[in-house]
Amino acid sequence: MKKEITFKELKDSGFKDKTINEELQANLIARIKAKEPVFEGLLGYEDTVIPQMKKAILAGHHINLLGLRGQAKTRIARSMVDLLDDYMPIVKGSEINDSPYKPISKFARDIIAELGDKTPISWVHRSNRFFEKLATPDVNVSDLIGDIDPIKAATLKLPYSDERVLHYGMIPRANRSIFVLNELPDLQARIQVSLFNILQEGDIQIRGFQLRMPLDIQFVFTANPEDYTNRGSIVTPLKDRIGSQIFTHYPKSIALAREITEQEARVSSLDKSAIKVPDLAKDLLEEVAFEARRSEYVDAKSGVSARLTISAMENLMAAAKLRLIETGAKKTTIRLVDFMSIIPSITGKIELVYEGEQEGADEVAKILIDHAVMIEFEKIFPRISKLEKEGVKTPYTDLIDWFENNFIELNYTDTDSEFYTNLKSVSPLVAIVEEYASRMSKEDQAFCMELVLWALTINKKLDKSENEKAYKFDSASIGHQFFEDN
């Protein structure tokens, strides 16, 4: 905490008073010149959103971040705090961060008029210069702008027209700070109107009393394009006063999506050392989200948040951790059968259209996983023909024939040794993986063995059945006999 000083000491220190725009611009320019990252952790936006953000800041604009859910809009806004100075001087006791050089409240003006250079100055750290409000239909003018406090008026024996009886809302208290209003279209039109003059003239009006209060605020708004039709819209005069509208987007590649998930997923270093995640499993996880964004069952306008894969990765790791606890093993590897544990992460993160509702959320989640499996499978192995000519051998004929007289049961709770010994007992399966995936890591090859079985069941060449503990794969002509007998 920086110690308090007097106004004279502040002036003698050579401190130069700056508007918040000047402050943001100066620190942005310094970072660019030093070739330092401006917005850290915003993966995938290096060539799209970040350059537009830099230009908006240099232009001194208020910003509207427009994009679907889970596109890091709020994170972008919060990252702007790093472009503020470490500390900002204010008149001690000011509710609205009055600058001693340009006081705007009666409280600060009176103190400086009385004490002059002896005016006490306190400091506000940049972490306390970020204000955030979620725009909901119940937000009112009093919350944002303020209201008259009748108790204060009675106590001080002042008329309601006196500025000293005001109770300031969030926006005046965010003076010389960054103010983020999330989901702007949800704000009632009459409340949006109250922001007009603040953005342009600095006037605020409370209960018919107009105050000339040149607030110095960097506004950042966020909005979802779908909200424009579903729940409301940004009124045109307000939109006109927002200098820059910047569109956000989802990651455009699996590799980039993997980086984001790895950065954001809350996985302890201890769990990372005990649980191996094959590269193929990481790709499959991201492919589920990409498939959801393409699915006919999922409302594309609502979007599929990047939080889906982050939450799914945490669930995958939890499934493996539970196995370690139950088996007493020291290490384990993520398996394809573990992907059933990500279903709760999918169902909670997607909005279904009518056809999806008819299928059911759990069933849609399984369909998405199956589609992702087939995409990853066909990157490595030959396509599985739906119709086969009699007597013509395919890469999978020997494997399918093996299941005519055999079956394999894959238990969630088996140790790695038991699980992979079981898989390797299927010699035609081992042969397929050795032929097409020999250059992959051992973990990926093991994952490929499950991938092949899964793909064959999706194409109805084998049958897959499950209970609470295991998956059973057998001939498509035999069906669910194992679980019916047990």
What does this protein look like?
The chain is of the alpha/beta class and 486 residues long. The protein has three domains: 243 residues, 3-Layer(aba) Sandwich (Rossmann fold), CATH 3.40.50.300; 130 residues, Helicase, Ruva Protein, domain 3 (Orthogonal Bundle), CATH 1.10.8; 103 residues. It is built from 24 helices and 17 strands. A hairpin with a 3-residue loop joins β16 and β17. The longest helix has 21 residues. The chain starts with a strand and ends with a helix.
Outline of the structure:
This protein is an alpha/beta fold. The chain contains 24 helices and 17 strands.
Descriptive key words:
Helicase, Ruva Protein, domain 3, alpha/beta, three-stranded antiparallel beta sheet, five-stranded parallel beta sheet, Rossmann fold, elongated, disordered C terminus
Strand content: 5-15%
Rg = 30 Å
The structural domain count equals: 3
Number of helices: 24
Oligomer state equals: single chain
CATH homologous superfamily name of the largest domain?
Answer: P-loop containing nucleotide triphosphate hydrolases
Termini gap: 68 Å
Q: What structural class do the secondary elements suggest?
A: alpha/beta
Overall body shape = elongated
Low-confidence stretches: 479-486
**Average pLDDT across residues?**
89
State the CATH topology of the largest domain. Rossmann fold
Question: In the CATH classification, which architecture of the largest domain applies?
Answer: 3-Layer(aba) Sandwich
Spatial ordering of strands, largest sheet: 5-8-11-2-12
* Helix percentage range: 40-55%
The CATH C-level class name of the largest domain:
Alpha Beta
Largest sheet: 5 strands, parallel
Number of strands: 17
